[in-house]
Amino acid sequence: MELFCLDFLKLKPKQMRILYKISFIIITAFSSVSLFAQTSPKPNLTGIILDENKKPVDYATVVLYKAADSSIVKTSFTDQNGIFGFAVNTEGSYFYKASNMGYNTFKSKTITLTDKNQKVDFGSAQLASSTQNLKEVSIAVTKPLIERKMDRVVMNVSTSAIMTGSTALEVLQKAPGVSVDQNDNISMQGKQGVLIQLDGKQTYMSSADVANLLRNMQSSEIETIELITNPSSKYDAAGNSGIINIKTKKNKAGGTNGSLNATAGYGKNFRGNTGLNLNHRTKKLNLFGNYNYGKTTRENIITIDRISNGTPDTYFMQSGSSLRKQQNNNFKAGLDYFIDKNNTIGVLVNGYFNRGTEASKNNTLIGPSFQQVDSTLASNSLQTNKYNNISYNLNYKSVLDTAGSEISADFDYSKYNGNDGSEYENDYMFANGNRIRPINYTRNGTPSKIDIKAFKVDYNVALSKTIKLEAGLKSSWVKTDNDLQAEELVNNVWQNDVRRSNQFVYDENVNAAYTNINKQFKNTSIQLGLRIEQTNSKGNLVTTNTIVERNYFDFFPTLFVQQTLSKNNQLGFSYSRRIDRPSYDALNPFIYYLDQYTYNKGNPFLKPQYTNNVELSYTFMKKYMLSVGYSKTNDVITEVLLPDSAQKALFQTNENLAKNTSYNANLNIPVQVAKWWSMNNNLNVFYLSFEAPDLAGVALKTGKTSFQFKSQQSFTIVSGFTAELNGSYESPLDYGTLRIKSRYSIDAGLSKSLLDKKATLKLALSDIFNTYKNDISSAYPGLKYEVHQKNESQIGRITFTYRFGKEIKPARRRTTGSEAEQNRMKN
């Protein structure tokens, strides 16, 4: 790793300048701001800027002023020889100021231009090194985009220009080792089954609903994202590939203060959002709240070519598009009351109310070959959704002694209401356009309710200067009720479709206890933990009276060892056992059609999956890190695409495959290329294999080595003006029955501080070359299909943020206790 970093640091000035120019050409191309190109006539005011060693300073900022009123005339940058120039055709007196990071600003002598054709040489100017500026630069880069900590990777979203105006789901796509496909499935280090938390709380939602929640959350609400690949026993045992904890912004300053932000974006369609954050703190009371509104329109295009085996085979060529419109309202309000210096009680309320529609058009050509068509199916659909959620939290915290011992408790209640409605129109025709049968009209409504109750208490105590004990209890109760009301139009009368109408009720209770003990030796830290969870679940398919009931105890041990070899070298080892219970929507057996030949259905017979994780890490100079890991999952819950031979259809569902084995290596290298240029490079290499002796009557065994590479570039142009350029590449991947082709994209952004650093203006363009897409084929023996899916990903955004008010003292942060259950719901 050291040699790799030194190769970057040994770049010659000319090489660094080439890389610098390439980066900025891309950024300035999309923003249409020609900050660095001098397209005016030949300069008649020239000069040279040198450093303290009398060597040319390239890319120094030179600003020309009118001497009469000190107004800015033009801005320029020095070239590789330190030369700058201005083309001025107005007579008068002028002076310039030159600046560069690490140097004091230089002010020139005043010259007088008596003729617009007159040429004046300011001569050479020597910049003096500035200790103060260097300190300011050091402070500015203390929070890079990516930080590596002992047990997690932290992405500082709030400092990034590229993240501006994005949704939380789009931000996750840029996190190292994280991948989000076109169907919003989230994976980390190549594995799905990630537990998403908000401010340390499980969301208790289904994977589809978590994706919907993150799609509705704006980047302006996010402070950091934590990636925890091997969590301790203190965390819920769910999440075989680890935990992603999204920390929202919380104003830590006292007095009355806040911020206002607004974003406008455009790809093929307009999108925008705005938000307000407020905080008021007195000696005894802290009040806080925020509200965010977003309006989004996005397009999705999909094509599916497949062969249905038979005598003879049938060929399907499907193409379709959908337009989704969404309006999102998110809010949070709370208070903390400081009883005394050691005891605090708080109340928190948050929720959302969202509305949306999705109009889809699909056309399927059917025939004995891809070149010959004998019939077609034209399908149109309109889906509407209404999601409302409100959560209440009551919390208490008491500091027991000066050694840091404390006890905290949380009571949570969440209520979720959703209502999805769909209308379908299917038109079957011969190749000549004549109808095979009358148009088929169907519709369905799916009201759903979810109630969540949770309680937890955590206690930690310092037994000695080197020994710390943590312990806690938690119980959660979740009930989901989904009622599919399907109808079909018969003789112009809507009639109940008994084949599809159904009600599914799911109850789950999880009780947990954990303990961790941490011992600190001179150069070694050891933490041993155990979590016990008892699960009671009951799924009831009401219409058919099909009941699936499970009750089981599980033990989840954890072990962490940190060894300091020297000042710049540390080793780490971790082991954990984890569980993933099926998400609520995966258990729901309802069938949802794209058309007659393509549909999705749940599986109420899914079992939980269990994973053993081992990871070894090496850290050099507290910033370069290499980790290697191994995991094995039994009864792995996997999304699969399978054939429906009876209907000649293709359907998507979840199944328990026998096992999944994973080997992975992650390398993270931050590099300070120059004072004005820093980068973070992340390489994630992994091998995934899946085995199932009997998957719909076929033995499945797949395995492939894949990698993901992400590089984030940050540039400081001048004081208060920064730029970013990010790129990512994901190699081909086999996942269960899916064979996924490579995916890649490039993003860019600019950020400028305004109004004495109280305001920020940011420009960003995601997926500059519009390359990010999903191309999938079959890894299931005997099944042949090709899927191409493209979401609207090339989007330009402009965001303005303004901070106001007085800041006095830090305010208390608050997280709640019902996170683990909400990761599995709909918004």
In words, what does this structure look like?
The strands form five sheets. The chain has a 22-stranded antiparallel barrel. The longest helix is centred in the first third of the chain and has 19 residues, at 13-31. The protein has seven helices and 45 strands. Mean pLDDT is 83; it is low at 1-40, 131-142, 808-815 and 823-827. 7% of the residues lie in helices and 62% in strands. It has 827 residues and is mainly β. A hairpin with a 2-residue loop joins β37 and β38 (721-730). Keywords: Cell outer membrane, Membrane, Receptor. Pfam families: CarboxypepD_reg, OMP_b-brl_3. This is TonB-dependent receptor. Its main location: membrane.
What structural keywords apply?
827 residues; mainly beta; 22-stranded antiparallel barrel; 6-stranded mixed β-sheet; 7 helices; 45 strands; 62% strand; globular; receptor; cell outer membrane; TonB-dependent receptor
